[in-house]
Amino acid sequence: MSQPLRPNLDQVFAERLQVMATTLQPGTMVTYRAALNRFLRYLDTSHPEVRQLSQIRRNPHILGWLRNLCEQDPPLANDTRGNYLVALRRVFHDLESQRQHRLQPGLLVREDIPPADQYLPRPLSPEDDQRLQDQLRKIDDLESNALLLMRATGIRIGECLHLTAGCQRHLGENEWAIHVPLGKLHTERWVPVDDGVRHLVERILLLRSENVPPSAPANPCDWLLPRTRNLKTAYFHIRKILTTAAQQAGCSAPVLPHQLRHSYATEMLRAGVSLPALKELLGHKSLRMTLRYIQVSQNDLQREFHAARHKLEANPLHLPLLLTTTEPNHNAGMPAVFQSMATSRHLLEMYRRQLPDGKLRRKLERLANRLLKVTTELETLFPAEK
C-alpha cells in the first residue's frame, strides 16, 4: 500500500490556526495569520521547492526570511518583526509538541527576535489636556463623557467599551472604585475613583437611559456604553469623536485615545503615586511596561531632588543609614530584585533625559539597554516571581 500524502505547509498552518483561534483573542490571531502568510509567500517566491514542514532549514529558509523582513519597503518596525517571529516560533513549537511533524532543531532562536522599539511616552501637554477636557465637557454626549472617563481613570478604550452599567462599587466609607473587567492582558482590576469620576458615570447612565425605552427592565450587567455598533466600529467612532474634539479645542497636535492613558499615568506619578501602585492602576504585568507610560521632565527631577534633600535635612539619621548600609537583603526575594532593576533604569533614564544630545547620553542609553536585557533574562529564569 502506498503511504498517504503528507499535508503541505498551507494545510498544516491553516489547521493549526483553526485550533489556536479557539483560545486566542481575535486581534492576536490577526498577527498570527499575517506572520504565516508572509512566511508562506516568501517560500513560494524564493524557495518554491519547499512544500513540507520537514524540508524547512534555518539556512537558507529562516535566515532568508529574516533578511526579507528587514528589507521591506516601507521598513517594518521592530515590534512588528518581533511579533511575526514570535508567532512563527509559537506555531513551530506547537506543531513539534504534537509529535506528528518533524522539524529541524533551532529553526528560530531567541536572538533572532529584535529588541522592542522604545517609544517616548506621549502625554498631552498640560495646556492641550485642559483644552481637550473643557471641549469634551462642552460636547457632553455619551462618547465625550466616555473619553473623559478614560482620561480620569487611565483605562484603555477597549476596557471602557467593556464596562458594565454596574461597574461602580462601594468598597467602604468614602471609598469607591470602578471594576475593570478582563482586558488586553487577561487581568481584571479595581481602579479607585473620586466624586468627579462617579458623576461622570452617573452622567453616562443618564444619557444612556434617554436611548432606552422607559418600559425596558434595568439590568446591572448591561454595558455602560450601549452596544449599537460592533466593537471595531465603536472603537473607530470614539476615536473620530476624540479627533474632532481635539481640533475644536485647538490642541497643538492630533490626539489618540491611548494618549489619555499616558496623561493619566504621568499625572498620577507627579501627584506622588509610587511606581508599584501605578503599575496596578494601569493593569500592567511589570514595572518595565509602566515606565514606558510616564514622562519625567526637568521640573519633575528638580522637585524630586529638593523633596529628597528636604527629607534628609528634616531627619539626618537617614543619611548615615544610606551611606553605611551596604549588605544586600537576602530575604527580599526576586520581586525586590525586579523592582530594584526597574527603579535603577527609571532613575538612569531621568538623568539621561536632562543631558544634551551627545556621547554620554548615548552611552547611558546603551547601559539602560543592558539593564533591560539583564531584567529580561531574570524574568526568563524566574517567571513566577515577576
Summarize the structure.
The chain is mainly alpha-helical and 386 residues long. Helix content is 59%, strand content 4%. Mean pLDDT is 81; it is low at 1-5, 215-220 and 317-330.
CATH hierarchy, class of the largest domain: Mainly Alpha
Q: What's the oligomerization state?
A: single chain
The H/E string reads HHHHHHHEEEHHHHHHHHH
Query: Total domains, how many?
Result: 3
Largest sheet features: 3 strands, antiparallel
Mean pLDDT over all positions: 81
Distance between the termini: 55 Å
Percent of residues in helical segments? 55-70%
CATH overall fold name of the largest domain: hpI Integrase, Chain A
CATH superfamily of the largest domain: Intergrase catalytic core
Q: Nearest-angstrom radius of gyration? A: 25 Å
Please identify the structural class as seen in this structure. mainly alpha
Strand order of the largest sheet: 1-2-3
CATH architecture of the largest domain: Orthogonal Bundle
Question: Which band does the percent of strand residues land in?
Answer: under 5%
What form results from the Cα inertia axes?
A: globular
Low-pLDDT ranges: 1-5, 215-220, 317-330
Number of H/I helices: 16
- Strand tally is 3
